[in-house]
Amino acid sequence: MKASRPFRERAATRSHEPAGAFGASRSAVPPALAGAHMVPDEELAKEIEANVGEAEESLHSLRRQSYVIAGWARELARRLASGSRLLVAGNGAPGAEAQVRARARHGDVVLLLSTNGRSPRLVAAARTAHELGARTWAFTGPTPNPLAAAVDEVVALEGRNCHVEEAQLVGLHALRECFEDCVAEREER
């Protein structure tokens, strides 16, 4: 997959019409952009199409792993019904390992979220969870990565970090909906 250059870098290499080319009465141009070169709408639309295409790649990789998420939902419904808990941590959690050490217990599920799978804090949290007897799952970016290697099960998503994060959100919502279905199914028995 081709990595995209930052928009400003790409825009700087193009030829553009000046902001005032659409007529002097156009007052919607902010003063900071007065005299700056504007990217034509057609080029902006192409940028958006490319971005959506890259997001679709990440979502397609999520779709291919839907069976893993379905299994997580069923296992989570079973574990929570028996008194276990779900602990979730992401890259932004500076104390992920400490939180897991303080709160996780045997039988709990620890779900870790990382767009690239290289966070030492999350890898440490996974190892700590294992020491305590908790089950570990992760949503990560492309494999191989240290976090994927440290957990029991992984949903590894292809794509740039921004699109991996978007697909992770979709995956989390799907996990929640499937979990709710599994809980309702258990209650009907």
From TrEMBL:
Pfam family, one: SIS
Top-level taxon of the source organism: Bacteria
Domain SIS: 44-185
Region listing for Disordered, in residue ranges: 1-26
InterPro entries membership: SIS_dom, SIS_dom_sf, SIS_GmhA/DiaA_subfam
PROSITE patterns, sorted: SIS
Basic and acidic residues bias spans: 1-17
Protein name per its UniProtKB record: SIS domain-containing protein
Lineage: Bacteria, Bacillati, Actinomycetota, Actinomycetes, Micrococcales
